[in-house]
Design a protein that fits this description.
Chain lengths: 320, 130
Amino acid sequence: MSDMITFPDVVNWAVPFFIAAILAELLWIVIKGRGGRYETRDALTSLLMGAGNVASGIVLGFVAYGFFMALWAITPLDLGTSFWTIALCFVLDDLRYYWVHRFGHRIRWVWASHVNHHSSQHYNLTTALRQTWTGTFTFMMVMRAPLVLMGFHPGMVLFVGGLNLIYQFWIHTEAISRLPRWFEAVMNTPSHHRVHHGRNPRYLDCNYAGVFIIWDKLFGTFVPELDSEKVDYGLVHNLGTFNPLRVAFHEWVGIYRDATQPGLGWRERLNYCVMPPGWSHDGSRSTSLDIKARYVSQYPDSAGSPGLPYTEIKGQNTRP
Amino acid sequence: MPLSVLLPLVGVGIIGIAVMLHVLGLSRAAQLPDEVAAKAAWLREFPDHTPTRVILSHDHHAALIETDDGPGVVWAMGADTTARALSGARIRRTAKGLRIDLPDFTAPHIHLRLDPDEAAHWPTYMKDSA
């Protein structure tokens, strides 16, 4: 076993690039008068969330790394560190990212960590840095376990994960409209990811890809950006605070309040943790499926168009 | 990257970008040009609660909303807006207008800049329609 292999912490090394790219995008917007929006407190909150993410990685990173090294100690497989091994690891890790991201939108416990990334009503390069402080507590590290058990070194798995994160940085922009068709067909792009950040009913819960958009096309979650419907960024219920602590922890507090309210059975308490965001024991709230169904009932002509169900019946997406 | 380099880089980067944005005039709060805009901002957050009355603040940074389900408020969140229903709200006069405390972790305190006449009357509307 090659235990002493080290890979660079690419995300930290990319920090100067992040700062330079943000300044470049800002200047482009100011000079050209188009290509996105910036606002001071929104951007400051995003940047502080990014700094907190790095800090939480330094403080809690040992949990995931210890878990991976424990798996590495028991696996008999070692695929080495050739270029093609790293490339394969990158692709498989992107598939892993797709599912973690999808769980992040469909399981409230994971959404509690991921929601802060969607909490800005802006979409610019600082939004990319609005990252979670609480990812360790989602236990989604288990999704990387198969890669380690297959013989990819833990350092390599974290390295390609860092490359994945860096790739996703530049797609958080309105300054780039569409890229060549072949690129849009295979890769995640600003256009595809703008849709992912939309709060419009049709744009909810789609385009989970990290690097390769093919995963969404493969698993039926791809929705194209429509010229006829501008993306409205943010959450279904937008926050009323820029306080990074509230941004980071608000959904965890929501889960706690919901799951500990009096008069519930254990199954309902559990469901408040694991059902999709918007689920409630009395049906008083709306999940993304409810919101889409209600939209179709209000606008029947939209039924079956990208991102919307064919019928207005809650939770159904079948052809009539 | 060593922490001795990373930490100053992050600190200077964050402060520098924030100062630059402010100097470029990008700290201006959103304005609601008219009642139609305020109604649209409310419906963006509460599409099923149609306003029955909209009262715009004098500076156009906030609006009091009345609905059949109770009162609410729309206010500027940076360059954008958000809205909350006022159930469970505690409302206090301040030197610059009103402070609304809500039992809501995502919007615990709403500070509305109102002129003295608005600050005197808005709490009445908020209670009357609650």
